[in-house]
Amino acid sequence: MTSPSETPDGATGTAPAPHLLCDVQALAGELPAPAGAMWRLAESGRQLDANVVHLPPGGHVADHREPDLDVLLLVVAGSGTLGTPDGADQALTAGALLWLPHGSTRRIDAGPEGLSYLTVHRRRPGLRIGRRVPDGAPGSAARTPPASGKTT
Questions:
Q1: 3-class DSSP assignment, residue 142
Q2: Cβ atoms of residues 108 and 115 within 8 Å
Q3: Which of 8, 40, 70, 139 maximizes the CB count within 10 A of its CB?
Q4: Are residues 35 and 54 in contact, defined by beta-carbon separation less than 8 angstroms?
Q5: Per the record, which residues fall in region Disordered (predicted)?
């Protein structure tokens, strides 16, 4: 068991405390809103990334594939469609919770009133600054690949 001044990983200091981040329904009610992220999880030491994203009426996120991360998507306002390559499109309405498995290809199309949604996924490792180790050199297998593109 850890003492009050010790975090679960053994570091000393103040353990993080649960706290309210934002009111998603109030945030989604601030329409019209510009397209893009309306809110981002920014707490230091976090293991997750999360965003509240808004697409205006008729807006979309083009076909893309997330190779590394599973993503949860929760529709908080509006409506739209989650498109898939096999044509099995899913209707998106407020309250819909979707799992977007890593490796899947998808697109998101907003309906006539726009679409606001929360995405949550494991945090990508940060980029590290240092000397480049040539492929095949000792230690090259231990390199962390750079983080890649946007996740939806």
A1: helix
A2: yes
A3: 70
A4: yes
A5: 127-152
Domains of the chain listed by start with CATH number: 35-125 (2.60.120.10)
Give the mean model confidence (pLDDT) for residues 99-117: 93
Range name among 33-37, 50-54, 91-95, 145-149 with the lowest pLDDT average = 145-149
- H/E/C letters for each residue in 118-129? EEEEECCCCCCC
Distance from C-alpha of 32 to C-alpha of 99, rounded to nearest angstrom: 27
Of residues 80 and 151, more confidence is placed in 80
Query: Do residues 116 and 53 make contact, with C-beta atoms less than 8 angstroms apart?
Result: yes
Average pLDDT (104-115) is 94
pLDDT at residue 7, as a whole number: 46
Judge whether 55 and 96 are in contact, CB under 8 Å.
no
Nearest C-alpha neighbor of 101 from the set 124, 129, 71, 75? 71
Where residue 11 falls among pLDDT bands split at 50, 70, 90?
A: low
